[in-house]
Amino acid sequence: MTDAPAIELRGISKSFGPVLANRDISMSVARGTIHGIVGENGAGKSTLMSILYGFYKADAGEIFINGTATAIPDSQAAIRAGIGMVHQHFKLVENFTVVENVILGAENGAMLRPSIARARKLLAELSEEYGLKVDPDAVIEDLSVGHQQRVEILKQLYRHADILILDEPTGVLTPAEADQLFRILERLRAEGKTILLITHKLREIMEITDTVSVMRRGEMTNTVRTADTSPAELAEMMVGRKVLLQVDKTPATPGEVVLKVSDLRVRRGGVERLKGVSLEIRRGEILGIAGVAGNGQTELLEVLGGMITASGGAVSLFGSGLDITRSAANGQSRRAMGIGHVPEDRQTEGLIMGFEAWENVAFGYHHDPKYNVGPLMDHAAIKADCVDKMARYDVRPPNPRLPARSFSGGNQQKIVVAREMDRAPDLLLVGQPTRGVDIGAIEFIHRQIIALRDQGKAILLISVELDEIMGLSDRIAVMFDGRIMGERLPDQTDQHELGLLMAGVTEGAA
Amino acid sequence: MDRMPKWADVVLIPLISVVLAFMVSGLVVAIIGESPLRAMQIMLRGAFGSAYGWGYTLYYATNFIFTGLAVAVAFHARLFNIGGEGQAALGGLGVAVILLAVDWPHWSLALAAAMGFAMLFSAAWAAVPAYLQARRGSHIVITTIMFNYIASALLVYLLVNVFRVEGSMAPESASFAATTHLPNAADFAGGLGFRGSTPLNISIFLALIACVLVWLLIWRTRLGYEIRSFGHSETAAVYAGINPTRIIMITMLISGALAGMMAVNVVMGEAERLVLDFVEGAGFVGIAVALMGRSHPVGVVLAALLFGALYQGGAELQFEMPAISREMIVVIQALVILFTGALDNMVRMPVQSIFLSLKRRRDNAARPNPAE
């Protein structure tokens, strides 16, 4: 074994046109450690990793793997150099089994049988060695997200990866799954693997990494030992100014009831996903819904937002009933009634990724008279509105002609938030407001939500981030299996109690 | 990501594809022992060398503009309407029904009625697959193809059993009254050398108006915005309160109506009676035209002109070079479709990377001097 670092980058630079994505980056990662890379969206983390994995070619600089200068022109070369990458969005064939996915692209010959047998044996060994238990014959689409991620990791290990790059690995995981992932990463480290962890979440950096590098605006500004730093310090290094990790808010002063939901039921795919949900939100308060993803929160948000129909129950806004059973796609009338909706998934719901930013600013509100002149849409008015919103909601770059997909996740979310919150709706439905969003943008979005509450609006907040629920909510309702398990006040509960409720455990009547 | 300039996307890439298609076609012509250059010359002269050639080229182009727009509109909602052929056939039926049923005093009134009936019949024909797609999830590609066959069989039945003139052996309707005949190119552009022998008629102006209307619809109206939103993402459309059933139905009705307008040009403007199989593949050519024109009205006009020229020039070629059969012409047309439609990315990728590297070089050169 040499003492050379597993990865050493010297003077890596990369520009896209006039944009300098990476500027003279040098970094060294010791073998057998977990190295975190943090930075806001657009700071250049993904570019750097793409250079390391051979998707991009650096304009300047050298890469040393285990002390030897290595050229990585493509991902095949990266794999040969022992580098494996687990992408944020898994690259698995949904209707193949685990074994089939693992050997895909590494079949060793035209006949499948021998390589499947070999893979099965190796998989068993790998599972044993690293505690990565997965049924080799399970079909991917039947597996939970956490297990799918294990398959991705196994795929890389099967290709003899010694260096694993994980890009935002916990973005799609429940807290429990994230914990399991960290146990696996610790095992991998113990076996001498080197891990590069890219994440926004400072808590994860603090929990699992040995060293951490901070990137800002294409430069690597600091590399520190995790033990020597704190989340607040890291956040400051990332953003370049002091950041409030905890949201500042005054106690709520709830007014009249805005939304009343009684015994709401929703069926989807023959399964009852909401089994009689009742809740109430008043003016000037934030009701947070905690729960593990898939326990009916999505359906609650969608039925209130008019995307799907209910099979039973009643919903009223300011005391007058809302039609929840007739035709779906009611988003237009809901918006007209003063219900704003920041959907859970900005990429498939909240935005049309191929549309330019200004077209997205009118999305869902395109019938608004201020966006139209007679039968035609008033493009100039929409563009002007977009420029205005981009300035006030700090969307970067403030270019209304850029397609939505060209913005970073945080800036995409700011476009959605600007559109849905700027009209000051009486009721705001918010789903996963900060999923995949960088720290600076999280702080901004949280402040917007609180500000809307302070204007006397009612807010329904759904998030799988327990920290977010506890930090923002004035009341917390916990959902499990399509039901509300109980309600708590954030200052009278803790993560442990909520965690039990999220798992469906009730200790007597609350 | 960086993008190519629009002119490269809309003009340059299709042009390169066409040149490639002609090069391969030339190879085929050479293999059967004829001179590719001479064949090319004959085709070009046939299509553009005379007022007669132009008349036919533009007449065919009129058909392809209508069917191309039909496919393009549906594409924007990510619906693949392969049923242009059958919808146009029904449009012809509508034209014949109204022109034969009423004693028209003037062609302009007859034209308005014929347009109305053409669009009504063809839209109705498109409505059934649209409904099946929207409500029952039956794939529109499959159902529109099936409806082409049904339309074809229906027209044979009607022409033989209902419309056929007593005593005639031909499966065609009686000729329309002279008062319904549309002004021919000889009437409105005789000064350019057009004679009554070409079928070009005022329908070409209807086609151009349709282009403007489609452009307005898709890029300037709320409905067009909803159609494009739905085409990009159905989930997002539902989130925004756009009803998928409504969009599928309306889009297909418009698409069908556009395909049906093609019958005004052929049945009313040229044949002046309903004949069997008057569509002659224009519904399918519309798919290639829409693909090549990137579903934009300007692109559709240019692509329609190309295919019009291929039809007309091909007919001349067949006439002057006996070694080149009807099937050879189809091969050439198919190669153009193959290169511009199916192999689009083959040309697109390299051109795109050339453009990006040029741009990068320019940016780098320009950086010290921001005045550039």
Structural features:
heterodimer; A: 510 residues; alpha/beta; Rossmann fold; 2 domains; 6-stranded mixed beta sheet; 17 helices; 33% helix; globular; B: 372 residues; mainly alpha
Task: Present the secondary structure layout.
The complex is a heterodimer of chains A (about 500) and B (about 375).
Chain A: E1 7-16, E2 19-29, E3 34-39, H1 45-52, E4 60-65, E5 68-69, H2 75-80, E6 83-86, H3 98-103, H4 112-130, H5 145-158, E7 163-167, H6 175-190, E8 194-198, H7 202-208, E9 211-216, E10 219-225, H8 231-239, E11 257-268, E12 271-282, E13 286-290, H9 297-304, E14 312-317, E15 320-322, H10 331-336, E16 339-342, H11 346-350, H12 357-361, E17 372-373, E18 376-377, H13 379-392, H14 409-421, E19 427-431, H15 439-454, E20 458-462, H16 466-472, E21 475-480, E22 483-488, H17 495-502
Parallel strand pairs in A: 3-8, 3-9, 6-7, 7-8, 13-20, 13-21, 16-19, 19-20
Antiparallel strand pairs in A: 1-2, 1-4, 4-5, 9-10, 11-12, 11-14, 14-15, 17-18, 21-22
Helix pairs in contact in A: 14-15
Chain B: H1 6-31, H2 36-48, H3 51-76, H4 84-101, H5 107-136, H6 140-163, H7 185-189, H8 203-220, H9 222-232, H10 234-239, H11 244-271, H12 282-292, H13 297-320, H14 326-342, H15 344-366
Helix pairs in contact in B: 1-2, 1-14, 1-15, 2-3, 2-13, 3-8, 3-11, 3-12, 3-13, 4-5, 4-6, 4-11, 4-12, 5-6, 5-11, 8-9, 8-11, 8-13, 9-11, 12-13, 13-14
